[in-house]
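Appendix B. One record, verbatim.
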Amino acid sequence: MTFSERLRDTAGEQWNRVIKHRFTSELADGTISKEVLARYLVQDHRFLDAFVVLLSSMIAVAHCLEDRIEGCQFLALITGKENTYFERSFTELGIDKQQRVEIPNAPVTDGFLKLMNSAAKDGSLGEKLAVLVVCEWSYLSWGQLVLEKTNRDCSFVTHEWVDLHSGSYFESVISYLRRLLDEEGDRLDEKEQRKCEQKFLETVQFEEDFFDFAYSKVENFEYLK
């Protein structure tokens, strides 16, 4: 069993709750409410900068050029196609920039940002990878589960989010990140492995909490119904 597989198994049933969350099922079949989707996307967009910094910090401390190249290519994707998805989706949902600015960060958003920023600034290579792997592997996992049943007859906002987190290219990104984490895990002693495990489990918790948050009533988007 690889290091990344061991970490996933340590997360236990919580990992399954994340990748089989109500949010992902409703997103795929097109029944998700605009209110829930708006609440999720407004907050999720705020992770982009912190994620870019975290991924960049991992690339900077990777062991060799070979270990950096795919990360650099992925950076180009998430600052291009994925970012334009957000802008198009906000327009489609009728959420203007001023409205987004006025909406404060949710507590779960602040917590997740703090974790990403801390890993980027002070985390070891293994800890950075542990956070990155959860963020991307969990999304690939739910994307693969719902891809075949995804409703293509509804707004692009739903099915494009599934497409961004499935398919051969995204699978190659997760294989790359997991390979780096597995190799780094083999280099680490037990104490450093436990630090990676802690970051992995913290990230899984934030992923579940963030999906749950989308169904809260913290921000009122009822006008989108």
